[in-house]
Design a protein that fits this description.
heterodimer, A: mainly alpha, two-stranded antiparallel ribbon, 2 strands, about 45% helix, B: alpha/beta, FAD/NAD(P)-binding domain, 5-stranded antiparallel β-sheet, 18 strands, about 20% helix, Gluconate_2DH_su3 (chain A)
């Protein structure tokens, strides 16, 4: 078995800009693309459709060739051993969840609106997603006291997700993740929210990419910390 | 590398090469002892393997134990069936938790070592004093800060206990969110200060502070700016020629001789071969959950209830430091920026010590932090999808901050780690099962402190604040902090280890990670873990290995010769 430290870097089986379909059939691709476009819609800014979120998801579900990019983005890690087995099982489970999810979207769409999900208008698609999620469509952030909230996990694991929760999580990853994974085309997700983001992963390794200009530039610790003046130390 | 079925015995075998194992390896190898370090996980190369890839590091568990390979189960009490949950996961690799961490490096306070003396018996809690004091640990806190690399501001913390040395490098500049925190604290009369952090801000011991990407908390650092044992103490131990490090070697049992003393360990290497490594001394440094688990897995005729467990206390009194916080959303013109910084920027010890008027004992170190990178920045109640979600990202990603703390949770004897009867790990061994129910003091402390954090956010000008309390029956296990499962103390009937973290029952077995902590403390534990590991490793090299025994005089600093063995 190859040690994790020595997993080889191999070229991606598909170019990051190509539209090649690796997992979904045409109907599944179109359905997921339409659903992603309701998760992060297009308005005066690009949305998940323009970012290529469906391509990101298609690659993720295609096996374990797109799980971990090489640190410098020059390819992907070729996993082996127990971790490879765990990821193969995880991705395979997720693939089943997505395939069933497409069937569920179409079943609800046909029952309520008489057509496949992809053929519906936006508001009908939203109604299908609301029914599928079992929760109302999210309302804008408002200044109401909605009480204390339960803790959120700092790290998420892609196990035991429902189709809807997977769709939401992966659309977000396909919109805001590094473009090397096939989403966030032309880094448009980052532009939408004002995240500078590196030109390439390699730039984050050698000091090329820096956000130091976003720290406070002019400061004096004595001004920020009144106690310093009283403590007699510099 | 091919090994004979049985490699040569060595002086010391260390199981787990993270914060405590890396520290012990450095101290023991520099003292001339021959050490084999066994690490379950990989030995990654920072400059080759780490970069600012949010998907890889935060969403696909590159540094984290894969829960399908290393499962863990959790329940609230003994009547429930435990369910698989990624609870208090720590990277299992050379460097351990110091690979991914933000690097909070605060010192503990003198009161942390004497909670029972200060507060007596608290109903439902198993408060205990430490067998050591702050003064016993202070020289080693300084040693770690200087050998490891640390940034802090001398004189800034009004409540700081005695320090024998200043900080080796100055703090990182404040972020805009940090500046808001400092300004709000000034307005409210709160003493804010840069939280000491395990990073360097000027050239230090051949390292250069060149990582200003802000891919920090949760990411490996390719530059060496962050202090990790992977990048410092482990290479230093190797440079002595006295350390042989074997990674991806999974220790499944500590073996014992006919006399009940530790003989060595049995591990499974990356190719599935089972190998026994004998040693004069066995040091467990796996983290509080996994060290307790390995002791419980190591049953024998001499130790039928698990290794060194005649007290029945192995696994008990587990504490976990839930991370709780309040988020502030701002709607003014000045962006705070959600991404820049080394996670924390500004904190305060003002609420750390007990004030009975608050209705609880203990308190918290609070820290202001940025919100992180675009995928995983979050606040409870953030709209999940649709235009509301897109607007929330656009409006608040660069206009949000949080103030949080790790909960100084009370030890409870029934909060414990044992072996799950059903769930097995990737090697077919029982998973660690965690039973945890929060103590009433935990809820009161959390509520008071989160409300205080809301007050500071409001003074900082927040438009909306979102408090996150300890809500459920148990902690969610959202930090890596884990302590207390193999307590140190003077009474072999109620503790497992003595004041040198040497097992009462097995004199050549030491447990040097957070498992030894009698109480959780209210600070991030790694500095205390490393300083304590250094202290105990010093004892092993200078006293134990020379065939002598010394005890700490109870209640005061200093050693006394006990007997010559």
């Amino acid at each position: 078995m190859t040690s994790m430290a020595d997993w080889p870097v191999v070229p991606a089986p598909a170019d990051s800009g190509s539209g090649e379909r690796l997992f979904f059939d045409d109907h599944e691709w179109d359905t997921i693309e339409a659903a992603c476009a309701r998760i992060i819609p297009t308005d005066h800014d690009p949305g998940a459709r323009e970012a290529g979120a469906v391509r990101f998801i298609d690659r993720y579900l295609s096996g374990i060739d797109f799980v971990y990019a090489a640190a410098d983005g020059s390819g992907f890690l070729q996993m082996s051993g127990k971790l490879a087995d765990a990821w193969r099982a995880r991705v395979s489970d997720l693939g089943r969840v997505y395939r069933q999810g497409v069937r569920d979207l179409d079943a609800i769409a046909r029952e309520r609106f008489g057509a496949d999900f992809v053929a519906l208008g936006e508001s009908d698609q939203d109604a299908v997603l609301v029914q599928l999620s079992g929760r109302p469509k999210p309302a804008p952030v408002a200044l109401v006291d909605d009480g204390g909230k339960p803790t959120i996990q700092v790290y998420a694991f892609d196990d035991d997700l429902t189709f809807f929760d997977a769709l939401v999580a992966h659309t977000r990853q396909g919109f805001y993740g590094d473009p090397v994974y096939g989403g966030n085309r032309d880094r448009i997700g980052w532009t939408v929210i004002g995240f500078p983001g590196p030109e390439s992963l390699k730039d984050t390794m050698d000091g090329t990419y820096s956000v130091r200009e976003y720290y406070v530039q002019d400061y004096d610790w004595h001004d920020l910390i009144p106690h310093l003046g009283q403590s007699g130390t510099p | 590398m091919e090994y004979a079925r049985k490699p040569e015995p060595v002086d010391v075998v260390i199981v787990g090469m993270g914060a405590s194992g890396g520290t012990a390896a450095k101290v023991l190898c520099e003292a001339g002892l021959k050490v084999v370090g066994l690490e379950r996980g990989p030995w990654l190369r920072p400059r080759e393997h780490f970069s600012g890839d949010e998907i890889k590091f935060l969403n696909r568990t590159y540094l984290w134990s894969d829960p399908r390979v290393n499962p863990r189960t959790v329940r609230t009490d003994e009547t429930e069936k435990a369910v698989p949950t990624p609870f208090s996961m720590v990277p299992q690799m050379v460097g351990g938790g110091t690979v991914h961490w933000a690097g909070w490096l605060p010192r503990p306070r003198p009161s942390d070592f004497m909670m029972r003396r200060l507060h007596g018996d608290i109903e439902g809690a198993s408060l205990a004093d430490w067998p050591i004091t702050y003064d016993d640990l202070e020289p080693y806190l300084s040693k770690v800060e200087w050998a490891f690399g640390c940034a802090g501001l001398d004189g800034a913390d009004k409540y700081e206990p005695y320090r024998s040395t200043p900080y080796p490098t100055p703090p990182a500049p404040p972020t805009r969110a940090g500046k808001r925190f400092y300004d709000a604290c000034k307005k409210l009369g709160i003493n804010a200060m840069p939280i000491p952090q395990a990073l360097i801000t000027k050239p230090y011991k051949g390292r250069t502070p060149s990582n200003w990407t802000s891919f920090w908390n949760g990411y490996g650092d390719p530059s060496g700016m962050r202090s990790s044992t992977l990048d410092t103490f482990v290479p230093e131990a190797l440079a002595t020629g006295n350390l042989e490090l074997r990674s991806e070697c999974y220790v499944r049992e500590v073996t014992v001789g006919a006399d009940g003393r530790a003989r060595g360990v049995v591990y499974v290497d990356a190719d599935g071969r089972e190998i026994e490594q004998e040693a004069n001394l066995v040091l467990l440094c796996l983290g509080a959950v996994e060290s307790a688990r390995l002791m419980l897995l190591s049953t024998s005729r001499q130790h039928p209830d698990g290794l060194a467990n005649s007290s029945g206390q192995v696994g008990r009194n587990a504490t976990f430091h839930e991370y709780l916080f309040a988020v502030g959303l701002f709607n003014d013109e000045q962006p705070l920026y959600g991404f820049p910084g080394n996670y924390i920027s500004g904190g305060s010890f003002q609420f750390y010590e007990t004030d009975y008027d608050r209705g609880h004992i203990g308190g918290a170190l609070i820290g202001a932090s940025h919100v992180g990178q675009p995928i995983n920045w979050n606040f409870p109640g953030r709209p999940a999808w649709g235009s509301a979600a897109k607007d929330a990202d656009r409006d608040f990603y660069n206009h949000a901050m949080k103030i949080g703390h790790t909960l100084h949770d009370m030890p409870v004897e029934s909060n414990r780690v044992d072996l799950d009867p059903d769930v097995k790990d990737g090697w077919g061994l029982p998973a660690a099962r965690i039973t945890h129910k929060a103590h009433p003091n935990d809820f009161r402390l959390a509520k008071w402190q989160v409300d205080k954090n809301v007050e500071i956010l409001e003074a900082a000008g927040a438009w909306k604040t979102i408090p996150v309390y300890l809500e459920r029956g148990r902690a969610s296990g959202n930090t890596c902090h884990q302590h207390g499962t193999v307590r140190m103390g003077t009474d072999p009937g109620t503790t497992v280890l003595n004041e040198w973290c040497q097992a009462h029952d097995v004199d050549n077995l030491y447990v040097l990670d957070g498992a030894s902590f009698p109480t959780a403390t209210g600070v991030n534990p790694t500095l205390t873990i490393m300083a304590n590991a250094w202290r105990c490793a010093d004892y092993i090299a200078e006293v134990h290995a020379k065939g002598r025994v010394e005890r700490l005089a109870p209640g005061r600093a200093g050693r006394v010769e006990a007997r010559t063995s």
